[in-house]
Amino acid sequence: MSEKPNDAAATDTVTAAMLAIGDELLSGRTKDRNIGHLADMMTAAGIDLKEVRIVSDDHDAIVEAVRALSKRYTYLFTSGGIGPTHDDITADAIADAVGRECTHDPAAMALLADHYAGRGLEFTEARQRMARMPIGAAHIGNPVSKAPGFIVDNIHVMAGVPSVFQAMLDNVMPTLKTGAKIHSLSVACPYGEGDIGGPLAAIQKAHSNVVIGSYPRYDGKRFSTEIVARSRDLQAAQAAQDAIAAMIDAIVPND
Amino acid sequence: MSEKPNDAAATDTVTAAMLAIGDELLSGRTKDRNIGHLADMMTAAGIDLKEVRIVSDDHDAIVEAVRALSKRYTYLFTSGGIGPTHDDITADAIADAVGRECTHDPAAMALLADHYAGRGLEFTEARQRMARMPIGAAHIGNPVSKAPGFIVDNIHVMAGVPSVFQAMLDNVMPTLKTGAKIHSLSVACPYGEGDIGGPLAAIQKAHSNVVIGSYPRYDGKRFSTEIVARSRDLQAAQAAQDAIAAMIDAIVPND
């Protein structure tokens, strides 16, 4: 059973989408770790993550997804494609999607020039690519490797390397509108979904302001279920949780 | 360095998309493991996985994504939402998306009735829900827990529990058209992308029938890079790999 504190001040629904960019995610070479992390952070902030897409390093695919997702949700978060190599095309695609020119941002150029000078490294043309962003974009600080992410309109553009993505997201979180926290109360059920599906549907019907989810698990021999009651109204979630627990207690095992 | 055998018989490009369905993936409660598995299986079969989406257990969101993805790619694979509980709405949404009625499939009903009778379990209304699919759909065998997935048009509908998803996909793979295998040759590079971005872009330009990807890694202290040359033409991939290795050898470390 888990329970999250309510944020009485925030009542609006705030929504988000994520776009993970990179051929390596679709070839299987890299297993994404950023989607699950963003999901956890959004839930903790009371922001509804509504949709995730993964596309390849393809200009048109990125532009189309950015336009669709940024229009539909409060926030869009992207990961990947903002490094110094030729296959890092996210900054150009985002600029295209929002109708702005993509240029070497003066503040980012100064920041990176300083950074590489301090380390005695040449500020190569490749490294200068990391200063490119749509004109007027705001920076997202990068404590790991300095090259900033950026924010344009409601789009937050971050790196794909998980440690950098996480550091950038930590900098972004305090700037976001947060929604009313969702209370998520779970009940462990030793029976499979086939045993509880009927009564659980009746409980869902009786608790209309609670979303009840049922998550099967299979341990190689038999199924069990985790049942989760989610609501912005704590008392409503607790009432549904009580009803679920009573339903499970009433089941007579078949074997 | 990895290398995959060529499949000389297959030359067409075969594409795929995946749609993972479930509130639990977007809340962070469950970390998806099916996308990476499908990506690996597609790459091994020479099928280009082009796009992945994750949506919640929302009828309209599923219908919209199914229509968009099934129209655009050779195959669409879905995971999740075909269990016995009220929040399993994938079968209805798929039926709606393809314009067919969703009914209790007679063969699936017989299969499941037998299965539960053999185990001395009641074939509840909830369990009967698992026999629902669009009229005329073909079954995908489920050796783990019997309830079949299904295929309608180019859409392959599978379970979300990873062991069941994997077993279903094993049954689907032999039925798919496969593309010419992609040779993926990688070179480990001890330098960060900033050191190699310039010469690597030149190599990409000189090897136009090879897609060169650059994947940064950060170990907490410094960046290194894995560079991957991908092509359906083995000799072309090898030529690019040789050029990348020579480029790395020529770099004089800065520190």
Automatic annotation (TrEMBL), chains A, B:
MoaB/Mog domain sequence ranges: 17-179
SUPFAM superfamilies (alphabetical): Molybdenum cofactor biosynthesis proteins
Pfam (any one): FLAD1_M
Protein name, per record: Competence/damage-inducible protein A
Annotated source species: Georhizobium profundi
